[in-house]
């Protein structure tokens, strides 16, 4: 368990944030630039001394300003990966990795050199130097070096922010594999929602130095009362699904979730029984009072309207419940009036089969 409570002021900015993170999995610190994400990470790593606060990792006090406790950064056993890889340019990839291994405490448990090389796909790069690597390759080496130091906590400060879309797509699967294989807590800073969807188990939503909400990612994604999420154009529910059927003839994949099924454009490479998460954007969900007929949409799902929340001058966010699963729909205020929508009503959620963002393995 990681426990963080920090207060700090500098250059007109005030941070006052507190949250807990479980002992395994990825906790994403998410919010716009300048909201305090990297400041929190630096304080946890010991690279910044806050005016006041506590940081406790696995029951050990790393920082308690009230008691004068401040464990040195090198003794906190936090592996840190920054936006830029910060590799030693004069060393080969192998020697950069072995530098991390030399920093591991004697007797500390963790993956071996060969395991990390295989996990991150670095075998073909071992003899090369950083200047001859792509940005994505350098970040994978930085991840491997941090992991070989056998940290108790892995801290990632927007590790994909400096990469283009192609390189980000290259590194994300390795990050997901690292999450599943490392078995240690990861604190991940980002302002990219697709990275949160692909990697995070828990979300800490930040704005102007304050924690707006914290909790399981799927629960927070489906909340219509968080403007920092709900007013984004890519806002929507994150749904845990299982592949039920692959229909190659019709080019469709059928997915089961708690409360029903969805039909999506076929996802090649997914076997029946595979688990994944899909982001269903609120802007891609329409509602009807009666089940439509002769419609091209595959997904017509019975739902109950749970809440209507303002989402701008002309729009509202509808929170729908399909069994135990919450779904969001963005509609105009005019639509609410024309249909006479009110909480508690039975409605139908209409979703195109091509409307889903694939967020990765669950």
Q: Can you tell me the CATH topology of the largest domain? A: Rossmann fold
- β-strand percent reads 35-45%
How are strands sequenced across the largest beta sheet? 7-8-9-3-10-11
Number of helices: 9
Q: What do the pLDDT scores average to? A: 90
Compute the CA-based radius of gyration.
23 Å
Backbone shape? globular
**Low-confidence sequence ranges:** none
Structural class comes to alpha+beta
Number of strands: 21
Number of domains: 2
Give the helix level as a range of percent. Answer: 10-25%
CATH architecture annotation of the largest domain: 3-Layer(aba) Sandwich
Q: Mind telling me the CATH class of the largest domain? A: Alpha Beta
- Written as H for each helix and E for each strand, in order along the chain, the element string is EEEHEEEEHHHEHEHEEHHEEEEEEEEHEE
The main β sheet shows up as: 6 strands, mixed
Write out the CATH superfamily name of the largest domain.
Answer: P-loop containing nucleotide triphosphate hydrolases
Gap between N and C termini: 22 Å
Folded structure, characterized:
The protein has 362 residues and is an alpha+beta fold. It has two domains: 2-221, Rossmann fold, CATH 3.40.50.300; 236-361, Beta Barrel (OB fold (Dihydrolipoamide Acetyltransferase, E2P)). The protein is 22% helix and 39% strand. It has nine helices and 21 strands. The chain has helices at residues 37-45, 93-102, 113-119, 135-148, 165-182, 193-199, 217-221, 227-230, 333-339; strands at residues 2-10, 13-21, 25-30, 52-57, 60-64, 69-70, 78-81, 153-157, 185-190, 202-207, 210-216, 236-247, 252-257, 260-265, 275-281, 285-288, 299-310, 315-322, 325-332, 346-351, 356-361. The protein has a six-stranded mixed beta sheet with strand order 7-8-9-3-10-11, with helices on both faces. Strands 2-1-4-5-6 form a five-stranded antiparallel beta sheet, covered by helices on one side. The protein has a five-stranded antiparallel beta sheet with strand order 14-13-12-15-21. Helix 2 runs parallel beside helix 4 and helix 4 packs parallel to helix 5 (165-182). The longest helix is centred in the middle third of the chain and has 18 residues, at 165-182. The protein is globular, with a radius of gyration of 23 Å. 39% of the residues are buried.
